[in-house]
């Protein structure tokens, strides 16, 4: 080796020393990365067009969900200029060294992401306006805050509350209170028939001075009740520069909030609680082990998995729970009670993913739905702590419950579940964003087989139709899927007449397919096609006259339960594939600006396919049904690579509590459930060399992708549990007790693998030619 200068000689000498002395002069050992170390909660903190993500500190499915409260009105929270405070149950907690005020905005502080730490178990930020470092960690139902004060300063600790609130100062170091959740009646009794959230906050040092306020008036009163109330106390930096605040949360009472705090934090230090919550996340995230991929892909993956394990929320407290469905406290009887779900979204991939990882918890979630039915008379679709939200369309609890049962997870009362599903399907209106009895429009669906749209130029006369409009085609399509799910449960229970009835309704999707234009299209009540109709831009804002947030290009493929029947409607595989190909390249018919102003939920566009909205998610996998699975492999890779990233713009649209993230988790491992309720998974193209899922029964399902790379995205051959697999799908039963899927990957499509008609995944209709 020719050494040209001193620098090279120094490097060579150091290398020789290292060779002789080994580890004696080696640097410090680098600790291996744990799953939680990859999580970056600020991913998606800038929305592509609509809602940004929230970097919650919480336990998996925890009731305490903590994130800094940013400047009001700035929806892209990563770009917010100030931190206004932190959640203390229903109150907002803040600290400052400024002047005492009754206005929360006067306590707000600037901050800088370069001086911030975000993890699932811990958050830290410098409150730069006040020179204070704030730290946050959480348990299931409690928050633990630690504030580092400037030496010799006097700080103000503040609790502010909004509407229908109450607070009380207890002694010289405790504040407790509550606030109404939802509803409109500002009653403050704990038994008033409303939902309230309670808190119990302990401060680590006695208040040197404390006041309360209501609206703009400071007071020496220890209690306040009403709207816009608050509490402020002085904390001197003398004798220590650290103040801690520990807050228990409850939906039962302030006494229960105190008990939750005592039981979950007790005498443990901030670091001990932080370490315990980190361990919980490592255990939850460690249920999936991945090998291969790059640093960015691992970051995206584990962040997506973290977001997939936040909902539903366990609100069980010490063996009891408050129900917003009858406003009573119930014993949990050994089965935790969960709320906070959105089944229009989550039945698609979030619940199927959670079912793989934590099946007993999913069974308790289904039990929770049945309790809500018992307490309210309806099976909800969007349950919150305050009751049903009546959001979006469809009664997809049928899909959720059927999917769990068909995959062998059955620790719930199926007879009761069917009773509730039957009532929803036959007695609840299908109108968007409604909960109530049948309307004249619902009867058209039952009698004529489609939900009617307004004819061209017709004025709305049905009083139950509100601002979300009829969304008639989407209602028909999503309800026919729910009807198919109801039919399968009826069949399991031996209810033949019900099975026949619901199976007839399950074919209603055919009644809104117009063969003249090869699109799903609206019909008026007289059975005539609505004309003129533009499949791309028809339906007004969000397409809501006819569709749910999307257009006919997306909803034409929304027949999850009968893809084979849809292929037949379109004239066979060639026509279907041509239409599917065109979806990914079709342009907007106007400027992109105008298109997105009409369809703001259609973010993450590839052609007119929108990765930012849930009705699209199964569509890339439909090639597995139509004989061209290599196109599924190409498309899912493209969508993961383009629309998911490791920065604030890394989510393609609304994450909707983890649904958008769960699509990535499953797709990155190489499979996806096109039709929940049918216990199979369609195969895509994994990005990792190995993914191992530790299921709740302790068994492992492993996906091995030999020779996988960015170019080697195409499956050449496959084996499932040691046997050749010639189909682009596999049954849940094949992996329920563990198993291994081995995929041989290459850079060119194998157009024979999985392409025969007989290789297609199951559908309601038989596959032509199989």
Automatic annotation (TrEMBL):
Signal peptide residue numbers: 1-26
Segments for region (Disordered): 748-770
GO terms (BP aspect): carbohydrate metabolic process; glycoprotein catabolic process
UniProt entry keywords in alphabetical sequence: Signal
UniProt domain Glycosyl hydrolase family 92 N-terminal: residue ranges: 38-250
Cellular compartments per GO CC: cytosol
GO molecular function: carbohydrate binding; peptide-N4-(N-acetyl-beta-glucosaminyl)asparagine amidase activity
Protein name per Swiss-Prot or TrEMBL: Alpha-1 2-mannosidase
Pfam families assigned: Glyco_hydro_92, Glyco_hydro_92N
The Glycosyl hydrolase family domain, residue ranges: 256-747
